[in-house]
């Protein structure tokens, strides 16, 4: 399993997603290239979501390593 991702890595993912969105909005892409950009966006969004979920679970676990059962 991969270790925690740095905030810089998440920032780079967001930047890449923003650039891809701008590229898609331009309307200048061939259909094959547009499909590849959409696939890359989905992959990046999945990675970012999984990392944020891991970070949340780690924060919720606290120092004992066990998840809290409610607030």
What does this structure look like?
This protein has helices spanning 7-26, 31-61. It has one domain (7-59). The mean pLDDT is 82. α1 runs antiparallel to α2. 72% of the residues lie in helices and 0% in strands. The chain is mainly α and 71 residues long.
Helix content: over 70%
Strand content: under 5%
Uncertain runs: none
Tally of contiguous helical segments: 2
Alpha-carbon distance between the termini? 29 Å
Overall structural class, as computed from helix and strand content, comes to mainly alpha
Task: Give a brief description.
With 71 residues, this protein is mainly alpha-helical. The protein contains 2 helices and no strands.
Write the layout of secondary structure elements.
Elements: H1 7-26, H2 31-61
Provide tags for this entry:
mainly alpha; 71 residues
